[in-house]
Design brief:
The complex is a heterodimer of chains A (262) and B (274). With 262 residues, chain A is mainly α. Helix content of chain A is 84%, strand content 0%. Chain B has a six-stranded mixed beta sheet with strand order 6-7-8-3-9-10, with helices on both faces. The chains are: A mainly alpha (262), B alpha/beta (274).
């Protein structure tokens, strides 16, 4: 079995269902006169016109920028606060109830408050993304920090490692698999927050585009927006997996080794 | 003054006038449960002391208080003239479970070099020292591997190299060969003896294995009872260098292990030590 062969197989395995569904959609909608469900052929024509490349520049790019900023803030805040709460027990005990409460509150419910505080512009949109994305990263970071092997703590103590080295070479890498798991969840809800904030806020962005198209009864454009959003989400996930694979190559190697070896 | 590091031709170096480690009335209790009490002994420069006792006797607790990882309830440990309050410079520890004491996200070399980095040693020098320590334990060729890619015995060698890299004057080992197979265990025992002879460092090794204790030590310290006390310090007058087959075939070896065994059994330890 050559690797290129298995590669082809993997790709086919991943593609067969999407291809089948698109085909069904394509033929089922081919002669559709239903206003809400226009033929996929029409949607695709329009899709190319709208999104390549004008729409990418004017709608998707600003959305992605806000997403990246909000998500970036969430990662930094979640990891830094999570490290702090994970290491300092009494602090965690003191704020844990509030953290649990805020996490359990759906981020979207805070949207009206954010609008009141930050208005309808970019800061509100970035703010809501950062807010909802912080929780899963924060909580996973706390767990990851807590899970440091007691023996490793003793190793660190016996070698009198500096605090900065303990954080950088022991605590952070130990928590990394869990931080990434949290960040993956956070990325998914960031996209949701991005779309909703754009539907509520000032014009611009892919979320606003979809809502605007729907309001102006341009269902074909609306569908293209939804498809573009789906593709964007898919690509973001792929990008994330790529970064994760790089950062956690030791972890994947070790897991495979432990499962395969012995 | 101290005895030269010319090691112990049959006569243990315990007679050295400045002990490296002095244990003074040491005791520890977890709550109302007294683990050990009234321990008094000292370890001389370059001496190899094995602490042996049945499981559950508190060997690991003793080791943690010896190294400053744990504050003992009573008494004190003095390392090179200073009372130990936290892990002192010049004393390195090798833990029992190599699979947990090595960082799986760092290469073998980085694992060994990390303590050096915290000591503020420059990169080139760190790499040189770490490579030297790895060469000492016969792992020169696997510096770029991750620990989990190595066998158990090799991982424990990495842990030993990490302890050696900081050029400690004393090294404390907690059942270091408990999780490897018999063949590897014998290899590692000889490795530790060789390293000790080569570097002239003081070694304290905790084990439940009587044969291992007698084979390695200049002095065997028997711990038993509840709470545990030192029931004997037995000088091991076996010729050096030790040899896995020849040494263990000596009548004196059998005599010593019987003596240690009796001490452990008869000193009122109620548990049949599983």
């Amino acid at each position: 079995m050559s690797t290129s062969m298995s590669m082809v197989r993997r790709v086919l395995w991943e593609l067969w269902l999407p291809v089948l569904l698109v085909a069904i959609w394509w033929f089922a909608s081919a002669n559709s006169t239903n206003f809400y469900f226009p033929p996929l052929a029409d949607i695709m024509d329009e899709f190319v016109d709208i999104w390549f490349f004008e729409g990418i520049r004017t709608e998707i790019w600003p959305s992605v920028q806000r997403l990246a900023l909000g998500f970036g803030i969430a990662v930094v805040a979640g990891v830094v606060l999570g490290m702090l709460l994970g290491v300092v027990d009494w602090l965690d005990n003191a704020v844990r109830p509030i953290v649990e409460f805020l996490r359990a509150t759906p981020g979207v419910a805070i949207l009206p408050v954010m609008v009141l505080l930050l208005g309808l512009g970019t800061s509100m949109k970035v703010g809501i993304i950062a807010l909802v994305a912080t929780w899963p990263i924060l909580l996973n970071t706390i767990d990851g920090v807590r899970s440091v092997e007691p023996v490793l703590r003793q190793v660190a103590a016996s070698h009198r490692l500096k605090l900065s080295h303990r954080i950088r070479f022991i605590i952070l890498p130990n928590a990394a698999p869990q931080i990434f798991a949290g960040a993956r969840t956070a990325l998914a809800i960031s996209v949701v927050a991005m779309v909703i904030s754009e539907m509520v806020g000032t014009p611009g962005g892919i979320g606003y585009f979809i809502l605007d198209a729907q309001r102006s009864f341009n269902t074909v454009a609306m569908w293209t927006g939804i498809i573009a959003l789906g593709i964007l989400g898919y690509l973001l996930n792929k990008l994330f997996a790529l970064v994760e694979g790089r950062a956690l190559s030791w972890h994947r190697g070790m897991t495979a080794h432990n499962n395969g070896g012995k | 003054m101290t005895v030269t590091t010319e090691n112990t031709a049959g006569q243990p170096a315990a007679t050295s006038d400045t002990p490296v480690i002095q244990v003074q009335g040491l005791g520890h209790a977890y709550g109302p449960r007294q683990i050990f009490e009234g321990l008094e002994f000292s370890v001389g420069q370059g001496e190899f002391v094995c602490i042996v006792g049945p499981s559950g006797v508190g060997k690991t607790t003793l080791l943690q208080s010896l190294t400053g990882l744990l504050q003992p309830s009573q008494g004190a440990v003095v390392f090179e003239g200073t009372t130990v309050k936290s892990p002192p410079e010049g004393l390195a520890i090798v833990f029992q479970d190599y699979s947990r004491s090595l960082m799986p996200w760092l290469s073998v070399l980085d694992n060994v070099a990390l303590p050096l980095r915290s000591m503020g040693i420059k990169k080139a020098e760190r790499v040189r020292m770490a490579t030297e320590a790895l060469t000492e334990v016969g792992l020169r060729d696997v510096t770029d591997a991750y620990p989990w890619q190595l066998s158990g015995g090799m991982q424990q060698r990495v842990a030993i190299a990490r302890a050696l890299a900081c050029q400690p004057r004393a090294i404390v080992m907690d059942e270091p060969f408990a999780s490897v197979d018999a063949q590897t265990r014998a290899e590692l025992e000889d490795l530790v003896l060789r390293v000790r002879d080569h570097l002239g460092i003081t070694v304290m090794l905790v084990t439940h294995d009587i044969d291992e204790a007698v084979y390695l030590a200049d002095t065997v310290l028997v711990l038993s009872g509840k709470p545990a006390t030192v029931s004997a310090m037995i000088p091991v007058e076996l010729p050096v260098p030790r040899h896995q087959l020849d040494t263990k075939a000596l009548p004196k070896f059998a005599e010593l292990r019987t003596e240690v065994y009796r001490l452990i059994k008869n000193s009122g330890a109620p548990s049949a030590s599983a």
